[in-house]
Amino acid sequence: GIPSLKCSVEGVTKRIQMQVVNKFLKCPFLRAFGGTLPADKITAMAGLCPGLARKGLFPVSSKFPQQFARVLAENWEPPKAAYPPPVANIPRCYTPIDDKMDKLKLEGRYRVFFDIARKVGEFPTAVKHGDTINHNQEPKKCTVWCNNDYLGMGQHPLVLESIIDAVRKHGGGAGGTRNISGTSHLYTQLEDEVASLHGKESALVFSSGYVANESAISTIGRLLPGCEIYSDALNHASMINGVINSKCPKFIFRHNDMDHLEELLQNGNPEAPKIILFESVYSMDGDIAPISEICDLAEEYCAYTFIDEVHAVGLYGDQGGGIAQRDGLQDRIDIISGTFGKAFGVYGGYIAGSERILDAVRSFSPGFIFTTALPPSVIAGALTSVKYLKTENGVELRRQHQERATHLKQMLVDIQLPVVWSESHIVPVMVGEASLCKQASDLLMDEFSIYVQPINYPTVPRGTERLRFTPSPLHTDEIMQHLVNSLDLVWDRLGIPRADQIGSVSFLDEEIDDSDALIANSAFQSWTSHRTSPSSSSLLVSAQA
Fold this sequence. Notes:
There is one protein chain. This protein has 4 domains: 14-75; 116-144, no CATH class; 155-390, 3-Layer(aba) Sandwich (Aspartate Aminotransferase, domain 2), CATH 3.40.640; 395-544, Aspartate Aminotransferase, domain 1 (Alpha-Beta Complex). 44% of the residues lie in helices and 13% in strands. It has 21 helices and 16 strands. The chain has helices spanning 14-26, 28-32, 39-48, 50-55, 64-75, 95-106, 157-170, 178-182, 185-197, 209-223, 237-246, 258-267, 291-300, 323-326, 355-364, 366-369, 376-389, 392-414, 434-448, 477-494, 514-532; strands at residues 114-118, 125-131, 140-144, 202-206, 228-232, 250-253, 274-279, 303-308, 335-339, 349-353, 419-422, 427-430, 450-451, 454-455, 466-469, 537-540. The protein is globular and about 95 Å long.
C-alpha cells in the first residue's frame, strides 16, 4: 500500500504536489526511512534520482525540501503488509518444498547418496563411509556395480601419471574462461584428438556432457530461424532442456519408432530447418538407435542429425568413436556429442562436427562462454585416455568389456531374473516399484556389500523401476557369482517377481504433464513389446536358455 497525503503543502502548486509527492511516496528507498528523513537528505536523494533529475520536477533551489520533509513526517503511514504475518516458528515459504520432499520420500524415490571412496588399484571395490542420512557409519568395503567408469580408465596408471604431471607443470585450475586465459595448449590438443576420433573438422570441449548437449542444442536452435526439433521420447534430460531453452517448435517421436518420426517430418513445415535428436546407446534400457534409418530420413527431409554418444564413446568402434564409428555412419552425422566422464574415466563433455557449426556454438553459447575452463590436469587425463583407447590396448579392453556384460546377462537369466537383454553393455534388471527397488538396493549393501543404485522416476517411467548393473573388465567371475547369488536371495526375501511371473506393468494413477506422458508411454510400450516379441532389446526368461 502507498501512504496517503492528508493535507496540502502550503506555497506549492497542486501540480507540483501531485507530481513530486506521489513520486516520492512511491519510492521504495524513501519509504524505507518512514517519516524521519531530513530535508537535506531529501535534496540529496532528489539530485541522485534519475527520474526526478531527468524530468526536472524537483525544485532543489526552493524551500520545497523543508516543506516536504514536514509534510512527509506528518502524513507518512506504513504500507499495508503484502502478505499475512508468518505464524511463529513456521517458515511458510518452505511449506511447498517440504510437501514435495515428503511426497518423494513416501513414494520411495528420495535419493540417498552413498559416501563412497574408491582406492587406486582396487576397482571395482570401494569403501562406504555413510550416506545422505547416516553420515558417520563404520567404513565398509563393498563392490561397486553401478559405476560409469566402464573400463576402469579413471584409475589407469598412464591416465593418472598425465594428470599428476599436468598439476606439477600447470597448477590446479585453468584460471579463467576459455576466452579469458583458460584455453591451454592441452585444450587445443584434446579438441584435435576428439575431432580426429569422430572424423570431423572440429570439436569443442565443455565443462560436462550435460552442458555440451544443453548448450549446443539450445544455441543451434536459436540461431536457425523457424527451426523445428524432432526428439526421441527417451532422450536424456540435457537434450530435453536444450530443446526447451531453444524455444523451437518440438516434435517428440516414440522411442526408436521410425514410422512415427517420418509421420512427424511429413507434417512439418517443408521450408523450416530441422534437427533430429537421438542417442546411440540409451543408458537405462541399453537399446541402440536405428542410426542408419534416422540418417535416411534426415537426408530425405533435409534435417540436421545430432547424436548423443556419451554411453558409447570409448566402448564401441575400432578406435572407441562410438556406435556411429562401429557402423561406419560417422560421415552421415552432423553433430556428435560425447563425454570424458564415462568410458574415458575423467570429466568433461564435448561436441564434434563441422567448423562452421561449432564456431557458431563457441561464439553464441552462454554455457560455453561464461564458465571457467576445465583444469589442465583434467584435460591432460582425458587426452591420454582418448589416445590410449584408440590403440590395440583399447580394442582388447572393449572386447573384455562386452564379454563381461554378456556373461553377466546370461547368469541372471539362468536364475529367472527379469533382465532387459540388449546388444549393449547395460544390464538392467526390472523391479517395477520404487520402494521395493530401494529395499533391494539397501539389502544388497547391508547384507552382501554390493553397491547398486536404485533407478526410479523421473529417470525412468513409473512402473519400470530397476537396478542397473554396469560390469567392467575388472569384474571377475568370482565377483559376478557373488552378485548373482545375492540377487537370488534378495528376490526371494522381498518377493520380487521373477521373469516368468511378470504380468502387466502399470503406472501410478496421477497427473503428469505431456512430456512425462510421452516418455512413460514410450518406455512402457518398448518394454512390454520386448516381452512378447524378440528384438535387439528384449526381456529374457529362462525358457530361452
